[in-house]
Every structure is written in structure tokens, then in C-alpha cells.
Amino acid sequence: MLADLAAYLGDGTNWAGSTGILNRLVEHVGYSALALLVGAVIAVPLGLAIGHTGRGEGIIVGLANTMRALPSLGLMTFLVLLMSSTLIPPITALVALAVPPLLAGVYAGIANVDRSVVDAARAMGMTEWQILLRVELPNALPLIVGGLRGATLQVVATATIAAFVNLGGLGRYIFDGLALYDYTRVLLGALLVTALALVLDGLLALVVKLVQPGTGRMTVRDTGLQAAIDDRAPAAPTA
Amino acid sequence: MITFDHVTKRFPDGTVGVDDLSLEIEQGSFTVFVGPSGCGKTTSMRMINRMIDPTEGTITVGGRDISTVRPTELRLGIGYVIQNAGLMPHRTVVDNVATVLVLQGVTKRKARITALEAMERVGLDLRMATRYPAQLSGGQQQRVGVARALAADPPVLLMDEPFSAVDPVVRDDLQREMLRLQSELSKTIVFVTHDIDEAIRLGDRVAVFGTGGVLQQLDTAEAVLTRPANPFVTNLVGRDRGFRSLSFQSATQVPVHDVETLPLAGLGSAPALAPHAWALVVDGDRRPVGWLNATRQALVGERGEAALAPLGSLSTPSRTLRQSLDAVLSSPSERGVVVDDDGALLGVVEANDVLAALSAQRGSTTDDAGVLGATATQDALS
């Protein structure tokens, strides 16, 4: 079976075209991105609001638990029976997966910003919006991106279900393979999904490091400032 | 400059944070709110920049009733320093200091240059400007906090227990820095602390708050120590207040005596000391290094400089009787070492002279003498 798999991957014709590996990969990433985007539109404002005001923490627990308990495949099948669209049911099922980790990440990120920092910012004359955008959000980024990372992993792994309702994506290989008793194809689909998920996970892990506050990784050098410092403190030791 | 007119703060749960507070804080004064926790001192301070709104009464800052001013606008004109500094961890030191300027609409480039000036003013090394708060020590962070509050040059400065979380040595340093800054800048400062020593050292006016948010006494630091208004204040300033009040007596009249000195270089070849005599060892610049007696001199050959007895605390002529007396008490030879501002030896003071200077000064202010005398008797009895 592994030899068959290697042969399949080695054949260039299997990569090209509308049913080729590359196109399936693009479709898969497309469904995942759409679901994550819709999930973020729901989870980010809600998480920011609850984290900033400290009100409605019960909503987080309730919503997250309910959505986590929903079986993706069941939800999707149910929605397919209700409507004629083929795109909305799988995306809805994926959004339900994306929201809990995103919401938890945004909420925890904002709520965990040192309260004395927020208090000082307010006392200096920042408006609530300025506090949220200039103080809380930058310091919450590692946890927010961490939430995105969790959501991405789950959504990418589950986006195979789109193929169940005759859409594309890497799930095609799995469902087609099962129907045809072609287990090489099932294995191919599983491997590609795993590889995609791992690559995205690794990339987001790097982003988490990059957005860590107070490391200066994202800072633009201000040459005017440096010149002013050198000008004023020329004799200061460089240590 | 800042007035509280019958201000009361009642919290939603019914507790009274501040009870009918009326007080005036003069422009350019350093006023310290002091009291035990839960006495309403922080609540009172936070009402000045509308971090808390009073339930009753009015507060005016610079003649304006602040309930008519938008909180954000009011706060931009009032510097604020808190415990642990509260610096933004994602911004560099210079950007933290520049925060208020940027909020006021100054361009980032200009704000940073002004921020550097503020850092210089509080004695921060400008090389720290591009570091992040987490890379600084607690004392340095606190200095950045003060620089941040001063950068936009506000007329009023609120400080909420700013130095409580740093170690005593750094705190002493920061307190001295605060006094220097205030003598240069003459801001109207409201400073909250639970430490009566800090209150007396820093404040030219001290407001003592009691439980339930009732103001017990508002007076000069010296008056709070020497003439406490009621038993609560007496209790708060504590039993050492007689000793503490020495801080208000100048040491200029204490005579400085000569002392036998030995040079640090060639210590081993110095002539032998008499059995009960102490000699002060000084270095090439006549800075005192340590005390030596006959017993310790015998060990010099073996241990060198480590054989010296420690100096104890040093005093200068311009300081207070408290420092003179402390110098005497902490010295192994029972004589306190006096140095000039460069640290070079001037001589020694003796306990009898310190006490004589004290009674001379008390004699000139008979009113205080009576109170202090009564206090001492009371303490001796209790």
C-alpha cells in the first residue's frame, strides 16, 4: 500500500487539474479559512467585550460547552436536510468548532492583562477604546493567536466532512476511497490533512512567539531616537 | 488648588469609604494621605482624577468643579503613579514615558524626545530608553513610572503607595529623589501611604485618615508627631515619635570633636593603641574606613582591613539630631562619625552633646517642650 501511495504521489498528473491534489489542498484551506473567518467575526468582538468589561463570563462557559458538545457530522447532516445549500451546512459545523477556542483565547488574553496596567492606563487619560486597542489587545495577542492555533487545528482536521456533502477538499480522498474500497486513497487523504494541520500549527506557533509583548521583535527602529540618546548620554557605558 | 467640600463616598454595598471630607490642598504643596488600610485615603485620592466619583459633595481642581469635566480630559492633566509602576509591558521605556504626550496629540517623534528629558530628570540612564519594562529592576520601573507621570508636565501629581513594593534601600533612594524633584518642580502632590515614616519624611502637609474614612488631623508633619490631635493619631504615629521628632531638629549646634586617626596605608606598622582607646582609620582621601582598638589591632597582621570594626551610620553637620544620635548609637566607639558632603572626615560627635543640643532647642520652643516631656513620661509609664 505504501508503494502504491508513493507511486500515486510521484505521478505528476495526480497533482494537476480540478481534481488534483493541489486543487483539493486549496479547497480544503479555503473551507477552513472561511470557517475561521466567520468564527472570528463571532468570537473576537464577544471575547473583547467580555474580557474588557468582566461581564458575562457565564456566556463563555455556556456557549463554549454547548458548541463543543455538538457532533460536527450530525449537525451538518441535519442542516443539509433543512436547506438546499451545500456550502452553509459544513461551514456552520466548522464554525461551531472554531468559536470555542477562539472565544476562550480572546477572553483569557484580555482578562489576563495585568489589572494595574489597565488601571494606570485609564488614570493617565486613555478612553476605554484606547485601553482596549493600545493596552489590552497587544498584550493579549499571544493567547489570542494561541486560540486561533487551536481552532485552526480542529477546523483543518474536521474540514474533511465537506466532501460528505459532495464538496471538495482533502476529504474527497477519504470518502471516495471508502466508497471504492481504495484504502491507498484513504491513507493519502489522511496523510495530507495531517501534514497540512501540522504545517499550519507550526507556523502559528512561530506567530505566537513573534507577538510576545516586550521582546522587541516587532519594533521598528527609530534612528532619530537613537541619535538623541547618543547625543545626550555619550559617556554612558554601553553595558 | 484642590478642595474637597463635604465629600462622602458610599459604596454600593453600603460601606462608607470617605465620610464628609473637607480639606484644601494648596498649590505646590506636598500633601500625604496616611492611615491604616480601609481608611479611605486611596479612595479620596482617586476621586481627584475621577477614577472614583463621590456620592455627595464637590471636588474642585484649579477652581473647576471636576464633576463637570470629562474624566479623560481631567486625567490628561494629572500625573498618576501607582505601586509597581503599572508600566505597559509591550512598550519600550521611552514609549511608556511618552504615553500621555501621545494621548495629548504630540507627534511620536517629539514625544519621545520630551520623554528622554523626563527620564533624565528622574535620574534614569538614557540607555534604558529602548529596553522593555520587564528588563528593569523594581526600583528602575518605579522611576520610569514617575518619569511617565512628569513627562507631560502636569501641575498635579497623584501617587498611590508608589514606593511600598521596593526594598528599603531603593525606597530611601526614591524618597530622596522625590524630595529633590519637588524642590525643583513645585508640583501639587498628593501622596498616599500607610507608612507614617514615609509620610513624615516626604510631606509638608500630612492628612491622617481613620477607619470609616474620617479625617483625623491635617497638619504639618512636625505637628502631627509632636501634637497629635487625638488618641487615634497618637497611636498611629506610635511610641517612637519622640525619637522620630528629632528629625525636625537641626544638628548644626552639636560640637564636632577631633578624633585620633590612623592611615589605612601602613596600618600594620601603626603604633600600638592604649587598652580602651578607639582610633578611626581613614583612607588617602581622609574618608573613614573603620574603627580600630587594641584587640582588633592585634588581628591586623593576620586579617588586614577585615580586622576593622564597622563604622556605623555617618552624619553630616547639615543633617538632623536624629542622624547624629543614630551615628552615636551605631558606632562601636560610642562616638558618631561626621563627614562633609564629599565623605571626608570632619570629626566625631558625642552622645552628651547631642542631648545637650536637644534640650537647648527644646528650651527655645517651650510649647513643644511641654508636649515632648509629657510624651516621654507617658511612654516610660506604659
Automatic annotation (TrEMBL), chain A:
Keyword Transmembrane helix belongs to the record: yes
TM regions (residue ranges): 29-48, 69-88, 94-113, 155-175, 187-211
Q: How does this protein sit in the membrane?
A: Multi-pass membrane protein
Any one of the GO CC terms: plasma membrane
Task: Cite a single GO BP annotation.
Answer: transmembrane transport
Which InterPro entries does UniProt cross-reference here? ABC_transp_perm/SBD (IPR051204), MetI-like (IPR000515), MetI-like_sf (IPR035906)
The chain positions of domain ABC transmembrane type-1 read 25-204
Q: Which PROSITE patterns match?
A: ABC_TM1
Keyword Transmembrane helix appears in the UniProt entry: yes
Keywords attached to this Swiss-Prot or TrEMBL record, sorted alphabetically, are: Membrane, Transmembrane, Transmembrane helix, Transport
- UniProt xrefs under SUPFAM superfamilies: MetI-like
Where does this protein chiefly localize? membrane
Instruction: Give the UniProt subcellular location, in the record's own words.
Output: Cell membrane; Membrane
Give the family from UniProt.
Belongs to the binding-protein-dependent transport system permease family.
Which protein are we looking at?
Glycine betaine ABC transport system permease protein
UniProtKB/TrEMBL annotation, chain B:
Q: What is this protein called?
A: ABC-type quaternary amine transporter
InterPro entries per the record?
Answer: AAA+_ATPase (IPR003593), ABC_osmolyte_uptake_ATP-bind (IPR051921), ABC_transporter-like_ATP-bd (IPR003439), ABC_transporter-like_CS (IPR017871), CBS_dom_sf (IPR046342), P-loop_NTPase (IPR027417)
What are the coiled-coil residue ranges?
Answer: none
**UniProt keyword annotation of Nucleotide-binding present:** yes
* Native source species: Serinibacter arcticus
Which spans are transmembrane here? none
Q: What's its EC? A: 7.6.2.9
Which UniProt keywords are given for this protein, alphabetically ordered? ATP-binding, Nucleotide-binding, Transport
The UniProt entry, under PANTHER family, shows: GLYCINE BETAINE/PROLINE BETAINE TRANSPORT SYSTEM ATP-BINDING PROTEIN PROV, GLYCINE BETAINE_PROLINE BETAINE TRANSPORT SYSTEM ATP-BINDING PROTEIN PROV
Organism domain of life: Bacteria
Q: Which residues form the ABC transporter domain?
A: 2-236
Q: SMART domains, from UniProt?
A: AAA (SM00382)
Molecular function GO labels: ABC-type quaternary ammonium compound transporting activity; ATP binding; ATP hydrolysis activity
